[in-house]
Amino acid sequence: MSTTTENFSRATPLSAIPRGKVIVVMPAYNAATTVKATVEDLPPDAVDEIILVDDCSKDNTVEVAQGLGLTVIRHESNQGYGGNQKTCYTRALESGADYVVMIHPDYQYDARAVGVAVDIMRLGTCDVVLGSRIRTRREALAGGMPMWKYIANRLLTLTENLALGQNLGDFHSGFRAYRREVLERIPWQNNTNDFAFDSQFLAQSVYFGFKLGDIPVPVRYFDQASSINFRRCITYGNTTLLILVQFWLQKLGLARFKIFQKREG
To answer: Does residue 180 form part of some domain?
Structure first.
């Protein structure tokens, strides 16, 4: 029996796949000192538009972002981290995005990886791509991640992988890329306006059958980088565990939750 490559269908070269429109969205709060560095790291040939949504910052984030030529939306009242993302994705879809990359504008994540994340989605390998801060323990801690946060991340990520049948390195990354279809099908408008929005979104992505993957993205921890404190981390962790319970109750048909209901229209 022949074992030549003639027996296999040839994969479509990346160069033959339509590029699509790539929009980067930045949910911002007091990011005036870091947004410029984040934007400058973005590969200019990989991004068509950058949308920054300011959630009532107390500094001059809006002025800095406007000076960089970004599309800027300013909330009249604080909507919370999840509420900020809702505005980000609504505007990105209205602007015709084929791929949306959410990255925190606090210079914590390496924005140079945006093009790589999009290419993985263009190939059809994944529908959702996360930037993993934790390639190795040594690298994460050397980047400034506090030990208690590293341990909490590992335990919660392990639990989420087991509950959702995934193998992601970091469920709690502020670097996330989505195909347009993901944002069109998932009812993220029903999600919380708080930090648990991200945990709900990933549980929804699994529930609706999308393919998730990740890429290593070096992380930087410093005073200006956004981070939630220990007390809020405990609340976030407990809420994430509750979301996993809801996922399985919905999946087994024992209960129904709005975050897992199909969008109408």
So the answer is: yes
Cα 230 from Cα 208, distance rounded (Å)? 32
Domain count, the chain: 1
In CATH, what number is assigned to the domain containing residue 177? 3.90.550.10
Burial of 167 (0-12, 13-18, 19+ CB in 10 A): exposed
DSSP 9: P
Strand, coil or helix: what is 30? coil
Q: What is the pLDDT of residues 58-112, one digit of tens each?
A: 999 999 999 999 999 999 999 999 999 999 999 999 999 999 999 999 999 999 9
Q: Provide the token pair at 174.
A: 């502020």
Show the tokens assigned to 82.
Answer: 């999840």
Domain residues for the domain of 225 are 16-259
Q: Give 145-162 pLDDT, tens digit per residue.
A: 788 888 888 899 999 999
